[in-house]
Design a protein that fits this description.
The complex is a heterodimer of chains A (about 325) and B (about 500). Chain A is mainly α and about 325 residues long. Helix content of chain A is about 70%, strand content about 0%. The two termini of chain A are about 20 Å apart. The chains are: A mainly alpha (about 325), B alpha/beta (about 500). At the A-B interface, helix 8 and helix 9 of A face strand 2, helix 10, helix 11 and strand 18 of B. Chain B: Keywords: ATP-binding, Cell membrane, Membrane, Nucleotide-binding, Repeat, Sugar transport, Translocase, Transport.
């Protein structure tokens, strides 16, 4: 092929960064928003926007963590359990210490559990699905061992300063999430670990034979995922003012759905922070619109499943 | 009437012509060689015959009638069967199930597999091919790569194709296995099957084919019977210039010993291997597939573990436990399986080229993007990677350019003292080969120690300052350059009696 001499070295244009599926999904969400805005008075209100912005925090943080591990070719099913345990710890430990200490303890616990996941997977070359399925179950058990009844925060400020607080019209929890997004984006694109983890998801053996410390980058990815899950748990318990041992069951599936809708590839090698953000937003808007129109939650589940199917179909590679 | 005729076909992808104008014809029962560098249009042509893509213009004629091959099922209906270079076997299934995939025999009902019959058919195919020792009930994952290639070909043979296309079928086969394959090809041709044979190895082309078609830049530029075309004309047609000075001048000036391997052993692979490489020296390692050459190199690189023996780098112990430590210790290795473990194919050129040298453009784990781009850009410009686009996925590059990206990856690492090349020119076009030879020589001249493993005899003979011959996991001979005689080298490698005239030193 002689035309291979072409020296097209221009940076990709803004538009070319998005696939046709991205654009279709963007349009679909816009149409849905336009429809909701015209059909319901409650949609385009500040109150509704605050609601949506608070609701996306949980799935948003879980999805970003999930994206990090999915890019390595792995998966983390234990995020829902970590979320529950972190929420309980941050709330329950308040009987012994101030919540400003309890929160770091809960976050550190999430990080450690993620590191354990990563270490098991990297050290013994185990399948991420199986390892995190196991930790998902055991951590849920551990959560009930810690407390089989809901816990309420002792300190009112735990809710007042974080989950129930606003800066201007913007919920604090949303601001925390909005700060995490660029950090994750930076990690994925501009750190050694992020680039190595990406290549790892494409061809692990090539990365190992390039003299890269595969174990370290894998452990770091799962650690980050655990940390983000714990952060989601802390923020959730702070927002609703209660920590339940049962919370978060099935959340891992919503996170995986958001990653897939956003262009992530199970098995590694794809997905961006911006794409996942789009996936999270799309799911949240659909939820919100259906709620506003009082659609039965069973139909909501049905519709979500169909959206995931549509996303996968739209993004499948054509031969 | 020709069995298969290609008439003025052309094909473009996104406006880039992959095939401009290819025509040739082949009579039934003939073996036709398709030659050409990477990017000459061979793979696109193969895809058309396999039903993976359709020509934009021109005709494919089978027995004089235009044929439209728009799906693999069409190809099969026309009796066309393609054996690709990349293995497409399912490792967790048995040999028999792989060979008969999609056409397993049944009994009692159309959905109950007759395993005994399946194993019998597979066994017959393999035995008729000269490999009765491959057990049809064995799992493919338990076979050697060479045996897997045999099964892959067996899978084609069981369909009794009328046109058989073989793409680099001998890349992983030993001499004896290649002979059996050639015998089968001749038998098939005698039975009226037409065979298209694609290979980079000229000696094979002269050994097995009747006619040659040379492709260059998507056009058929030369065609004729094997008797009419000598090697020089063939290479001239493929490369566009005469065969001259392919191998750079050898230098005899060597420095201190860099790598010292002493009594190295690995159970089942090699035993009692000792050798040394000096700075500025290219040490060639020749041996048949399975002789243990790659395993020895992998142990030096930390990608395999030795049971006994010692490795020293610049006099210091260097029994590396993993590639991470080996690279830090100054060892680079270009592996033989570029697609399997040399590149992350779906990643970009810049991600691949920068994969081994993060420390050069990062601080505290954060990448200096501009510095990384500058380093990679300089390197891929030096190596003339085409297209020169660091953001492009490596998968979209030709074999030769992919190999350049692997080389760029290692050249970007600082502090390398020993460079191991394992089959550096496999699946690479001749122009790039020449460039890689030049580069290996330059590395040695700059004071690096080079260990070169290759199954291509002209390559090891042309480049090495000294040659080790490995047979059955042991070093069979060490030859100085004045004792390089291809027939002796081969005799050592194959364990045959060696001619008396050579001045080699036997171990």
């Amino acid at each position: 092929m002689t035309e291979a001499v072409s020296t097209s070295r221009s940076r990709p244009t803004f538009a070319s960064r998005f696939s046709r599926a991205d654009i279709l999904f963007g349009l679909a969400v816009l149409i849905l928003v336009a429809f909701a805005a015209s059909a319901s008075d409650a949609f385009l209100t500040e109150r509704n926007f605050v609601n949506v912005s608070r609701q996306i925090v949980t799935n948003g943080l879980l999805s970003l963590g999930m994206l990090i591990v999915i890019r390595t070719g792995g998966i983390d099913l234990s995020v829902g359990s970590v979320l529950a345990l972190a929420g309980l710890l941050a709330t329950g430990l308040q009987t012994n210490m101030h919540f400003s200490l309890a929160i770091p303890v809960a976050l550190a616990m999430g990080l450690c559990l993620g590191v354990v996941n990563g270490w098991l997977i990297a050290r013994f070359d185990l399948q991420p699905f199986i390892v995190t399925l196991a930790t998902m179950g055991s951590l849920r058990g551990l959560t009930y061992v810690y407390s089989d009844t809901p816990l309420y925060p002792k300190d009112e400020l735990f809710r007042g300063l974080i989950g129930g607080a606003f800066i201007g019209p913007v919920p604090v929890t949303f601001i925390v999430f909005a700060l995490v997004v660029p950090i994750v984006w930076f990690y994925l694109n501009h750190t050694v670990s992020g680039r190595a983890a990406f290549a790892l998801g494409v061809n692990k053996e090539a990365v190992r034979l390039a003299g890269v410390d595969v174990r370290r980058h894998l452990i770091l990815a799962y650690g980050a995922c655990g940390l983000l899950a714990a952060l989601a748990g802390v923020l959730l318990s702070s927002r609703v003012g209660i920590a339940q041992p049962s919370v978060g069951a099935g959340y891992e599936l919503d996170a995986i759905a958001a990653v897939v809708i956003g262009g992530g590839l199970l098995g590694g090698g794809g997905g961006t922070a911006i794409g996942v953000l789009g996936g999270v937003l799309a799911l949240a808007v659909v939820d919100n619109v259906l709620n506003l129109f009082n659609v039965d939650s069973y139909y909501q589940q049905l519709l979500k499943g169909l959206i995931i199917l549509a996303a996968v179909l739209a993004r499948r590679k054509r031969a | 009437m020709p069995h298969l005729a290609i008439s003025r076909i052309a094909k473009s992808y996104d406006g880039n012509p992959a095939i401009r104008d290819i025509s040739f014809a082949v009579e039934p029962g003939r073996v036709l060689a398709l030659c050409g560098e990477n990017g000459a249009g061979k793979s696109t042509l193969m895809k058309m015959l396999a039903g993976a893509t359709l020509p934009d213009s021109g005709d494919i004629l089978l027995d004089g009638r235009p044929a439209r091959i728009s799906s693999p099922a069409d190809a099969m209906a026309h009796g066309i069967c393609t054996v690709y270079q990349e293995l497409s076997l399912l490792p967790h299934l048995s040999v028999a199930e792989n060979i008969l995939l999609g056409r397993l025999p049944t009994r009692w009902a159309s959905f109950i597999v007759d395993w005994r019959k399946a194993e019998r058919i597979a066994g017959q195919v393999l035995a008729g091919f000269g490999f009765p020792d491959i057990d049809p009930t064995a799992l493919v994952s338990s076979l050697s790569v060479a045996q897997q290639q045999i099964v892959e070909i067996g899978k084609a043979l069981v369909t009794e194709p009328r046109i058989l296309i073989l793409d680099e079928p001998t890349a992983v086969l030993s001499g004896a296995e290649t002979e059996k394959l050639f015998a089968k090809v001749r038998a098939l041709a005698a039975g009226g099957t037409t065979i298209l044979y694609i290979s980079h190895r000229l000696e094979e082309i002269y050994a097995i084919t009747d006619e040659i078609v040379v492709l260059k830049d998507g056009q058929s530029v030369l065609a004729g019977s094997i008797a009419e075309l000598d090697q020089d004309r063939l290479i001239h047609a493929m490369v566009g210039r005469p065969l001259a000075a392919i191998f750079p001048e050898k230098t005899r000036q060597t420095g201190e010993i860099v790598l010292e391997v002493e009594k190295l052993s690995q159970a089942g692979a090699f035993a009692d291997v000792s050798f040394a490489v000096r700075a500025g020296e290219i040490l060639g390692m020749f041996g048949l597939v399975g002789s243990g050459r790659t395993e020895i190199a992998k142990v030096v690189f930390g990608a395999g573990l030795a049971d006994a023996g010692e490795v020293r780098l610049n006099g210091a112990a260097a029994n590396f436990a993993d590639p991470l430590r080996a690279v830090r210790g100054g060892v680079a290795m270009l592996t033989e399986d570029r697609k399997g473990d040399g590149l992350a194919l779906d990643c970009s050129v810049i991600d691949n080229a920068g994969l081994a040298s993060f420390s050069r453009f990062s601080r505290y784990g954060i990448i200096d993007g501009a510095e990384r781009r500058r380093l990679v850009d300089d390197k891929i410009r030096d190596l003339t990677v085409r297209p020169r686009d660091p953001a492009r996925a490596v998968r979209q590059l030709s074999g030769g350019n992919q190999q350049k990206v692997v080389i760029a990856k290692w050249l970007l690492v600082e502090g390398i003292k020993l460079f191991i090349f394992d089959e550096p020119t496999r699946g690479v076009d001749i122009a790039t080969k020449v460039q890689i030879y030049r580069m290996i020589r330059d590395l040695a001249d700059s004071g690096m120690a080079v260990l070169l493993i290759s199954s291509e005899m002209p390559e090891v003979l042309g480049l090495s300052d000294r040659l080790l011959i490995v047979r059955n996991g042991r070093i069979a001979a060490e030859l100085p350059p004045d004792a390089y005689r291809p027939e002796d080298v081969f005799a050592h490698a194959a364990g045959l009696p060696v001619g008396q005239a050579s001045g080699e030193r036997l171990h």
